[in-house]
């Protein structure tokens, strides 16, 4: 009930049973409304002596002298259930309620929490281009490589045909496993491996087919011949330095035999080396990858990539195009078509240096920060502003939109500049200023005035504006453009018909002497008036005869 202890008196009412209370009588010094009493019962105070229940009365009626004589100075309470009770003892709250001592308490306030937004206003991704590329270029870790392979990887790199056949068969049976150590096509065509880098495609007889391997082979053969001639000269000089008589040979028999043995071994070694080199040069069996196998391998890679595309495993398909086929455009296109825009953007940047496509993909992938940085490099200020708007950074967006507007103004493209003000910045008043300037300077005057009128929403304001422009900014040179502009407003509202028609008649009347065909413009304002057409045609014919 919200009662204050200092504004009430409380008397306990004993029950008819021992050690029980019937209730308490609360005597309130202040006024109290019935709504605050709630479920409690009200009492009546009679002659400031006796409390009786509500809706009861005392019979027989007593005089004041009888009230004073029968009741003492204390209050009394009369109820049908318990009878008459003297209220001689008021509740002393000081004896019953012990007030605790006030203590100073240090209240610890919790730190401010992060407010949870009620709705998502923008969404963007922050991407790591290097990590994305690494996942595409190297989808398999070293632990996933298979040790027991049916082919020799080193011989395969050297261009061995048998190992290539084994690899192709393995690629056909287990493409997933073979892909983990698949060999790029350009690797098979470079100088990696033995045989002095003799890797080429096509027939053995072609002069271009020999490539660098043939040149190096010829140099190798020439070097072996030179060494042989040098050794022969040294051998002859040594023999001539010795005496061939029997006494001399008898004195140095061990030395002579050692020289002859060394010469024989060296000549045999040179012969074997020359034979091996010629064999390799003629056959190319250990370092030649023919066109058929090359095309087969290329076809297998392409079919495997297409299979991954059908299965929507775009990362694996892109890995084949990047690492094995070296077709970077195809790899980026596959990822973009698979809506893996951030991955496609990374390839456009690293391999193709196509910043425009990279920015477009970053934008599609909601990586707006990365797209903004590229658009800034490309000086695409309008796109930069658009993305800042998506990020709810309007101040930054307006800075770049203003750059676009300044360029349009410098080139007198007032309509385009006004559209940036209206649709991007949201400042129609500035857009109207530019359009009015374009009309006054006669730079695309008709389109400027047409957009100027279309930006006015109410017909009353439009009527006032048309009259104001006609009175201030219409001259002999631009009156026809103004006539074409108000033709568009004639059908906009019935309220505009009379105003625009009157202005049209004035313009035609001022120019009809010099330009009779302008009378045809009145037909637009009188489409239902058939006699107007006849009159205009008659006037035009008559004016033509005079001319």
From TrEMBL:
Q: MoxR-vWA-beta-propeller ternary system domain: which residues?
A: 1-136
Pfam families attached to this UniProt entry: bpX3
Q: Which residues cross the membrane?
A: 226-246, 252-272
Keywords on this record? Membrane, Transmembrane, Transmembrane helix
Query: SUPFAM superfamilies this protein is in?
Result: TPR-like
Superkingdom per UniProt: Bacteria
Name of the molecule in the record: Tetratricopeptide (TPR) repeat protein
